[in-house]
Every structure is written in C-alpha cells, then in structure tokens.
Design a protein that fits this description.
Blueprint: H1 2-8, H2 13-36, H3 63-70, H4 81-87, H5 103-109, H6 115-125, H7 132-144, H8 154-168, H9 178-187
Helix pairs in contact: 2-6, 3-5, 5-6, 7-8
C-alpha cells in the first residue's frame, strides 16, 4: 500500500482499489483456511522455505532480516491483521536492498504475527515463473509482438496472444465465436 500511496497519493482511487482488493483476497484466504483447519494460529512450516540459522551475536545483515527485527512478534487479531501490518514500523537501510534475501523468509519469520498474510505471501510469492505454461505464453507473445507491431495497445496484444494460445491448444470456438470457428475451420487444410 505504501508504494501506491507514494505513487498516487494516499487519497487516490488507486489506493482505495488496491486496499479493497487486498481486503477481498484476505477474506477469501481467511475463509479457506478456516475451512481447512479450525485454528489458524498454528501455521505448519513450509518445507520449501529454508531457514538459515545465524550466530546469536551476529546482527541482521539482509533487508529481510532487518525487517523481521523491526516488527513486533505479537499475535494480532485476525480482523486487524492488514492494518497492523500496514502500520508496522518497517525500517531498513538503503544498501540492504541489494542483498539477495527472499521475502518468503521474512514472511516465514513473521507468520505468527501475520498468519493469513503469510499464507497469501506463500501463495503469490512462491509461484513459479518458469513453468511450461508461462514459457508457452512468452513464446506466443514473441510471435505476436514483432517489431512491426510496436503501435498495438496492450489490450490488443493481450487479445491476440490469448487468441493465438487458444488456436494452438485447439480450444473449440463456441457461443459468440462459433461462426468465426466455422470460418477458421474451413481455412485449415484437411488431413489426408
């Protein structure tokens, strides 16, 4: 939220929209977790996130470690979890930004303070950006966005890439697209 406030101003519609989206997603994840387990205060450790132990006399070196040291380790009520996180005093030194620490480790260290937000962070920050589907999408985008198509609007590019992916995956064109699907099928060479 702080980035949106800096970029657009604290009273902007963008900040309100981002806050609304965060609250809606927070509620969705909270409901899902309540259905899966009755008590959300106990969060099982994620085996995919490694915890690196430091000697007790060593000060925090990375950005995430400094952020973890600045937050309080108190349990927050679930209703105020977002507000508590946004109001937390999270200070860090400018040169710590270049450290190769992952935000997942920070959320792991603070999952008791912010259990639902930590779950959301695991869901969103832990997604793989190099899966087969993503690679196919980038390949299709490269086919659509050639150098002579520099004036296309982002929405047009999105529609073209989606259409190309549907055609490559042989998704049947039904409903409002049935006539276009029949015309396209007539253009395809018949298999012999």
């Amino acid at each position: 939220m702080h980035i949106f406030e800096l970029a657009f101003g604290s009273d902007s519609s963008e900040v309100e929209q981002a806050t609304s989206l965060l609250n809606r997603e927070f509620g969705r994840v909270q409901e899902k977790l309540e259905l899966e387990q009755p008590s959300i205060n106990v969060v099982d450790p994620d085996p995919d996130v490694a915890i690196i132990d430091r000697p007790s006399n060593a000060g925090p070196q990375s950005l995430m470690a400094r952020l973890a040291m600045r937050t309080t380790q108190q349990q927050t009520p679930q209703e105020n979890e977002i507000e508590a996180f946004l109001k937390a005093d999270l200070n860090f030194k400018a040169k710590a930004i270049n450290d190769k620490a992952t935000p997942l480790k920070w959320w792991k260290a603070n999952q008791k303070s912010y259990p639902i937000l930590a779950t959301m962070a695991r869901l969103y920050l832990g997604s793989v950006g190099s899966s087969c589907a993503v690679e196919r999408l980038f390949s299709a985008a490269a086919d659509v966005c050639s150098s002579n198509r520099g004036r296309l609007l982002p929405s047009t590019i999105s529609h073209c890439v989606s259409s190309l992916m549907w055609l490559r995956e042989e998704v049947p064109l039904l409903g409002a697209f049935s006539e276009a699907g029949q015309a396209f099928a007539a253009l395809l060479p018949s298999e012999k």
